[in-house]
Amino acid sequence: MRKPRATAATSGPDGLAPAGDVAAIVAGTHGDPFAVLGVHEAGKGFVARCFVPNAEFVTAYTLTGKEVGELTRSNDAGFFEGRLSIRKRQPLRYHAKNAGGDWWLTDPYSFGPVLGPMDDYYMAEGSHLRLFDKLGAHIIEHEGATGVHFAVWAPNARRVSVVGAFNDWDGRRHTMRDRKDTGIWELFIPDLGASQPYKFEIIGPDGVRLPLKADPFAFESELRPATASVTAPPMAHRWGDEAHRSFWQKADPRREAISIYEVHAGSWQRRDDGTFLTWDELAARLIPYAVDSGFTHIEFLPISEHPYDPSWGYQTTGLYAPTARFGDPDGFARFVDGAHRAGVGVILDWVPAHFPVDEHGLVKFDGTALYEHADPRQGFHPDWNTAIYNFGRREVVSFLVNNALFWAEKYHVDGLRVDAVASMLYLDYSRKAGEWIPNEKGGRENLQAVSFLQKMNKELYGHHPGVMTIAEESTSWPKVSRPVHEGGLGFGFKWNMGFMHDTLEYLSKEPIYRKHHHNEITFGLIYAFSENFVLPLSHDEVVHGKGTLLHKMAGDDWQKFATLRAYYAFMWGYPGKKLLFMGQEFAQRREWSEERALDWNLLDFAPHRGVWQTVRDLNYLYRSRPALHARDCEPEGFSWLIVDDRDNSVFAWLRSAPDGNPIAVITNFTPVPRENYRVPLPKAGEWREIINTDAADYGGSGMGNGGMVVASGEGGGTSATMLLPPLSTIMLEFVADESR
Question: Where is the Glycosyl hydrolase family 13 catalytic domain positioned along the sequence (predicted)?
Answer without folding.
Answer: 262-629
